[in-house]
User: Fold GAF domain-containing protein from Zygotorulaspora mrakii.
Amino acid sequence: MGYHANLADFSDVDDRKEEALKMLLENYKALTIDQNNWVCNLSNASSLIWHCYRSLSIDINWAGFYFVNDDKKELLLGPFQGKVACQTIPFGKGICGVAAATQETQLVEDVDKAPHHIACDGDTKSEIVVPIVNNGTKRTLAVIDIDCRDFNAFEDLDKEYLEQLGKLIGETCIF
Amino acid sequence: MGYHANLADFSDVDDRKEEALKMLLENYKALTIDQNNWVCNLSNASSLIWHCYRSLSIDINWAGFYFVNDDKKELLLGPFQGKVACQTIPFGKGICGVAAATQETQLVEDVDKAPHHIACDGDTKSEIVVPIVNNGTKRTLAVIDIDCRDFNAFEDLDKEYLEQLGKLIGETCIF
Assistant:
């Protein structure tokens, strides 16, 4: 399939978000046909998400994952693209912790108005967090987290496709 | 300590590589005082390396880790910043695989002249790979891998400080 790096090239999609998000899902599937290691797959997935959104000129400043540390009922920082981030988030705290505890996508137009927002980066204005759930046990495995420097950057279309990505990750990765 | 994201700000170091690399080590230590999870710590470390080198106007296109999958005697893709990358590298193959097998830093001025180079991205011109070794068992745990779009981007100074980072990672992370 040529260079792996080319899978991060979303420039052909002509700025249409839905086409880019479809390509994101297809590229994730291609990368995980023979690979079920969660660290490996989430590392490449964070790159796909980052380059997908950046190619659409959406000014995201962070894209990646927090995963569940069962021992302590907390989320731990997983693979991501962007600046250094908070290492631990208690279940139920912050936007990520709420998504993990409720298993409901959190779509936040303005993080400063979210009562439980934990700020890792003062530049972040809006955020989407999507839970990744084990299909069998129904336990939360991880969350997808994307931050943007603009208010109201995410909409139902992002939710729809990122939830599909979350489902794919749950199916393709052994945590 | 303010926003975690601020630890990725190397702009005050006035373009002096040694100061930036010292700050990289100090920021890694600050982030890992109470944290020994290897996925969490390598995720933040990849961000520190990326922003350190980019702040020096060194045109790196990839910074991150491959970790050892003991079952298969291979390296698996770990946390990184940059474009999508190859998921697996056999021990002894490619520049990463040689670093893992020999436990010697590989400093490659021109990847096209390296007989065993595995190309994940055609833009890469030079590369440095530093092994991370368990201090007790002396087994390879992972490698630090940095790629640059310019020839001959890395020198003995990079080797010296990145080997210190590799040693710190070996001491601060449970794999």
Summary: Chain B has a mean pLDDT of 94. Strands of chain B lie at 60-69, 74-82, 88-90, 106-108, 126-133, 140-148. Chain B touches chain A at residues 3-8, 27, 31, 35, 37, 39-40, 43-44, 47-48, 51, 61, 64, 67, 69, 76-88, 119-123 (CB under 8 Å). Chain B has four helices and six strands.
